[in-house]
User: Fold these one by one.
Assistant:
Number 1:
Amino acid sequence: MLESVTSATRPTSGTISAGPAQDADRRGLPLRFTMSELVQRTGAPAATIRYYLSVGLLPPPVKVASNRYLYDERHVELVRIVRLLRERRGLSLEAIGRVLPEMLPDLLGRPSGVFRAEMWGDVLSPGAAGASTRERIVEIGAELFSRRGYAEVTVDDVCRAADMAKGSFYRQFTSKEELFLAVAGAVTRELSRTLGDLAARGPQEVERVVEALATAMMPRLAVVLDLTSLAAQRRTGYAAALSALVSALGEALRPVLGGAGGEADEVVARAVFEAVRRVVDTVGIDTAPSLTPLAGSARMTHE
């Protein structure tokens, strides 16, 4: 998982003299200690530490004898940061494995301080800067998902467009899926604001509302259709996000329709089909692959 981390810190073959930790320190080498002391200093069970080692989250210890290994400050700090990322950010070990190389660029040269001090704030409390970074990623994600569709966008694409390292992305989102759900929430708010502006003018005729909602939906149509498709596949989180979208639009539509709540669902459905029809008529289905699932229905509805 972390070949760049483990290879940089891999000990040479053979064993070294198992002198006391303080003797090693006097020789100018990193202070080393046993597993029991590592457990005491980190509060992590030995089994947990061994698992971190097995999946590559920690550099290999130094072998001093058969079945005897010594650890140093790198292991203390890495165990602590892995647990912080798990507990404070809810990251999976797989996600942490992708983040660590960005956060720890020089394990070999900095044996007593592998974790850059400026990273602590990002891990413990994103604050205003973290919130700003997250919003920027969501904005860029919305543009990419809208242009290419969910399946054609990768985390690498988002990072390149945002001009940021993957570590910065994974400090805000655990996966592309989480980012897409955040984008879906942003799209829901965008469309609700549009309907709110329309409601300020008083109740409107249904046809006018359908036209206005379709127009507002067109720039983000691929997101709406992908969300619908993923929810139909019963993928975790997507059904709830789609339900939130439909519910929010229904609430926003009621004052626009003069309280005719029964028409809200029909207006949303008509607006989606109208937006699909416009895109297909404008660019053609071959150049809008993310619209394929509903394109035929849109044409049938139009006819």
Note: The chain has two domains: 3-113, 175-302.
Number 2:
Amino acid sequence: MSQTEEPQAAENTEQTPAPSIGRWYKVRFRAKDQIFTATANLQDLHSGDDVIVVTDHGPEPAMIVGLGPQPVLEGKLAGLKPAFHIQKRCNPEEKEKFVRLIEKEEEAFKSCVSLIKKHDLAMKLIKVERFFNGSKVIFYFTAENRVDFRALVKDLVQEFRTRVEMRQVGVRHETKMLGGIGSCGRELCCSSYIDNFAAVSIKMAKEQNLPLNPTKISGICNRLLCCLTYEFPMYKEIRRQMPRCGKTIIVDDKPLKVIKLNVLEESITVIDPEDRAVTMDLPRSTWEPLTQEMRQQPQQSKRPPRTDKKPKSPSDKTDKPRGKQK
């Protein structure tokens, strides 16, 4: 019988279809939350539809914001996966429960604020997140120092009759949760698509010739702008190819000194050491061949040591007394 069953098993494996890649959609769990990418086998979803999304802590309701990018998952992108998967559409009962969930979060926010004042805690409540299945309520807050909120948690558990988690976040995450409009006039990058905050340093502002005024290069969170990291690699690469400030280049058999770099235009400003009132802007087509020629030239050897001075003989050395002389 084993010989007759083997061909049938082989036929079943051949008939099993490969898993199809669903369409990608942009979803948002709350009205002002971050937008995530999710796949769905449903083909007729539209913007504004309420759906159930599978998360790590269970199903959660979300709203379709729009159609996401439809990548061709080949080669290196074969293992690319979205953050979530859309399970189904919300039925009328789930839609009503979703509306009630938002109201419960607002009520929990007000209750927690009043309890914080009651216990006189030095903390600021930012956001309340309640799971759709009611298994947990998360309270996000900011504080300058550690806060002993054990009495607060007891009161919250007694009021909501569920698991309570107090999660302290920094000022950058606070801005990410609250959202807002940046100095560029667009929605904040952190609240729209940034998942992990990259390290930002003042060196990035210097490299891009930005004014080192804190009000100019700081965001709503009073930290350095996250967008300073976007073009920093490009500036760094172009600066590496350009001659440094203070370097002398030869243009038409005349030495000129570099005093300024314009990375965006890829041009340099030079000055004549003999006539400092005369400055010139050289485009990339002019300074690039000159810098390449200078790099190809062999470096001058170090100055040879002087031979006119005879080395001292051992007899010329005078023995210095060791220790203090009395």
Note: The first helix runs from residue 2 to 15.
Number 3:
Amino acid sequence: MHFISLIVSKRTKGNSDMLGRLAINEAMANGAGGQHHWQGELAYLKDYRIEECEGCLRCVFKNEPCHLSDDTYKLFDKIATADALFLVSPTYVLGVPGNLKLAIDKYLLIPKYYNKIYGRPAISVGIGGLANWNHFELPMLNLFLLGLGFRVIDSFYVRGAGPGEVLLNAEPILRLKKGIQNIMNWQVKPFEAQISAHCPVCFSTIFERIGDNRYRCPVCIVECEARDVENPVENSAASGKVSGKGFYFPAETLNNHRWTPKNVEDHFTNWILKTKDRFKKNITEIQKQKRKLGLE
């Protein structure tokens, strides 16, 4: 079994590097005596040259390999060897660094990897010093993971600005160690209904309001209901009831999130591939409007 720590930061021996190496150490310690023999590998995003997607869509409509001479395929090939993945990144202006966003934007190349990876466990950790400057970090990290097919089993934020400061808070270190233990024993299972302060799929705390007391995660499009009082709800995915304050997520919507195989296939088949024919039908009207607006 293969465990990879993928480190987004370019800083050697910085906070991301330290937590990535700690995850490797924990994986080796927990996997050595288990049912499967685990091997660990450190991977650095800085070692992969990722060019900006040009939006030519030849990879989709002509089924051609991307014509850009970069390391995107090399990166995805490496990630696809991971039976479990630990992704760690610094926070740059509320979100992820640009090098990871460049990889996210190569989403149209992912289908060849998605089915191979789907359901494998991953943990993501965002790092930054100042509170309230990180709200897009975890959703973007997990957008990358979910798009590839991983199941995010934990995702959290660690405070630390200077190199090594992340090691000064015992609570996230313990959470990381516990998460690695869970990865070693992970078995794919459906989501159960739950009440949570974040989206159970992508861990986003950002929601859009879609109705009275109704909200939706913009990353996963799972819908939920806000509950500010204790009100037990029947859990259709398991016996008993769930209760608490926060957002109530039914099992049905959690198991039909944006990144399921069915919905990913539907997006590619019924939207992306059909845009070509729709454009051909509109080309005459587009040319007419270009002449009218002086854009030829």
Note: The mean pLDDT is 92.
Number 4:
Amino acid sequence: MRKTGFIALSALLLIIAESSAAEMSGASFLKEEPGARALALGSAATALADDINSLAVNPGGLNFFVSPEGSALYTKGMLDSYYSYIAYVLPCGKSGTFGASFLLYNGGSADITGSSGTSTVNAETDMVLSLAYGINITDTLGCGAAVKFITSSLAQDYHALAAAADIGLLYRPFDGKCSFGLALQNIGTKLVYISQGDALPFTVRGGASFKVRENSTESWLVAGDLVYLDNCLRYDLGVEAVLFKILSLRAGYKFNNNPDVFTFGAGFEIFQARIDYAYCPTGELDYTQRLSIGFKFDAPSAYSTAVEYCKKGLKEKALDILKGIPKTNSEYFLARALMKKLN
């Protein structure tokens, strides 16, 4: 039954992709993936199931979160443009996981000369409120959707509204060493300022991530995405090294990105907080810098994580985690008792 549901949902995603208009889009503020970690990895974020900022890329990974998380982001763009982004994820056991985010884009100032002289206005101001929900089809397959409400203004005089939706799937085997994601973004109405409308940047993206090495002192991850946007296929690739579970070093490359760009960044995680930084050149004379701060409102142990998966109804996922708790762990006997109960 679950397999049938997965096939039907995948077919629906492809039908929507085929039926979407193949026109060039506007709303460029929706084309970038929020999150410093994603940018540092060359925007290869479709299959990342452990990053709250991937909420804006693939809501299919929402129900893999086991504790509430929050994130705040600031991005310095070209000239005096910038955007900020906040997000929050709330797991609710068998009821699934809920998420919300808010994005504010400011295109900087512009001088406009008219009959009454020259005045300085905001060139562009955009806001996006997103509400998301995710649940698991099986212990290893999650699905999710997000609804977006978009407002945009140009030169403070022309205003537009739009609504859109994202749909996503994320497959994560029990060992957690690899993930595969598929997502459709910005399925929605046009932004109509006066009489002409700009299509939203409908995006089809698929990706995979692999932990090629992991031990007590280091972890290496490789991620790759295929992204179809504005009649163009882009290839994103990223590599991440985590040292002593504290320091992360990242690099990425966006192929066929017009122009191709190299990205890099770093992250620092201590206790329940994480700070990420990314740098991405956007041309010969300009660049994008991105700084994000994340916080986990709980830091569950392996045993607590298994308990949370039990609450979600993901019995096999919980058992897989419990089996990996060593005898030297203080929660080993609790884990054995819970395994016996689940079996």
Note: The CA atoms of residues 235 and 255 lie 5 Å apart.
